[in-house]
Write a structure and sequence with these properties.
This protein is α+β, with helices and mostly antiparallel strands and about 80 residues long. It has 1 helix and 6 strands. The protein has one helix at about 50-65, and strands at about 10, 15-25, 25-30, 35-40, 45-50, 75-80.
């Protein structure tokens, strides 16, 4: 396995939370199962990779590190914050 850049990891009594942080303005149109999501700023639209899928690689890397934990205790979380 190669390297991956994880934004945040939270270790809690309920498990390990692997957190992907996105900083976007505007509206986000998304389907959790779609390959791409859309950001809309007024009438301009941009497509970007589904961050749930992006964070999946990070979750798998954490599962490999903590192989003694059941996978159900390692959670994929995506957080959006508005910038500017």
């Amino acid at each position: 396995m190669g390297t991956t850049q994880i934004d945040h990891i939270l270790v809690a009594t309920r498990g390990i939370f692997v957190i992907e942080t996105k900083h976007y303005k505007g509206w986000i149109f998304a389907n959790p199962k779609s390959k791409f999501w859309t950001q809309a700023i007024y009438r301009v639209k941009y497509k970007f990779q589904n961050p749930i899928f992006q964070n999946y690689k990070h979750v798998k890397a954490v599962q490999n590190l903590f192989e003694f934990l059941e996978p159900k205790f390692i959670h994929n979380i995506v957080v959006f914050s508005e910038i500017g």
